[in-house]
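Example (one chain per record):
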Amino acid sequence: MRRAFEVGAVARGPRRRALRRLGAGALAGLGVAVGAGCARRDDPRGPLEFWAMGREAEVVAELLPAFHARHPDVKVRVQQLPWTAAHEKLLTAYAGDALPDLCQLGNTWLPEFSALEALEPLDARVAAAGIPRDDYFAGILDTNVMPSPQGAPQLLGLPWYVDTRLLFYRSDLLRAAGHARAPQSWAEWRDAMRALRQHGSGRSFGALLPLNEPDPLFALALQQGALLTDDDTRGAFAQPPFRRALDFYASLFHDGLAPLMTATQIANVWDEFGRGLFTFYVSGPWNIGEFRRRLPRAVQGDWATAPLPGPDGPGVSTAGGSSLVLFRSSPRKDAAWRLIQFLSEPETMQRFHALTGDLPPRRSAWRAPALANDAPSMAFAQQLERVRAAPKIPEWERIFQEMQLTAERVVQRTQSADAACAQLDAWVDALLEKRRWLRTRTAGRSA
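Predicted structure:
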């Protein structure tokens, strides 16, 4: 949804100027109306305010006794936010000077709060703590690196858990169709889906790619290169890299290898996967547990995971998940950093995985037997070595959704690929007009 962003009387001084710099266009879809808000507690010795979302907020309380044993002088108050309201609440808190000390932040939200200059750089703290950056999956850590106002890169968060997309597939059906291993290239993937379609006498499909789920196309597009151009101020969707991804994606539907369905049109993904309606499904790590719980016992040994195929071999995928950030406005930065440091330790990450199933962003945390000896999880470790960050601009969430709506029109044959991509570029260029103006203005001042 696209709703207006409204800043009320509380957004004064630097915050109002920052919100104006970021622009209403970048924040459309958030619907934030700022009222009186809660005054922040500025006592540097007061309890830490930690905001987290969903299940992670529930589980983090189970990790805190070990933290308190190490730091008995630091008290922590965890506030659980629903994912559906978290983004809006954070922006409201920023405008009302009521941000917490630290927070769980979705990786794709970091550019917005970086543009608002709300986040405390962590480079010096990470170095002083001796946390090895190369222990993090490089593409995931990169989602937390943003340019400073002076243009130099700075680390604004530490990944807390990671998310990416890869193939879940029925290994028994793939073997029956004459393919002994998971496909590694687009050509192998298409050949396997054709063989599966033929083996099923046209009654089953090679893959389920719900038309309202943007991640599969996004991953294919990342494999081809840039989605934006001119320093992320214009769309590059009509250019050959994205067109190759879109053409391959659309051909899977046009050739009958994937059904023309949205996620709401399939009653139960796990039941249909168990019945063999489709063999390949592009999804994330949460489905490891779901497949183990929901698939019939008869097929529990017949499914597996594998990295995404790429144009000419194993391909890159999306770099998602959540990070831990420290807000500039916090009067308790040192204590908040101690909590971030504790939650970022490999042993704590292993405990967190055991409680939630969330995958850790540090390679050393994967040495735990629960991960190292689990084949479906280890496919994610392989994929996490090949992930790429989304464009680091606040407007990306809107572009991401519009990209999928464009692809849906191409798949449904209501618009040609040429016309759809040209229309998408025009829409993106209009959306990013203020970004281009700001870059021109900045360049003029420095000249």
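Caption: The chain has two domains: 13-163+320-373, 166-318+394-436.
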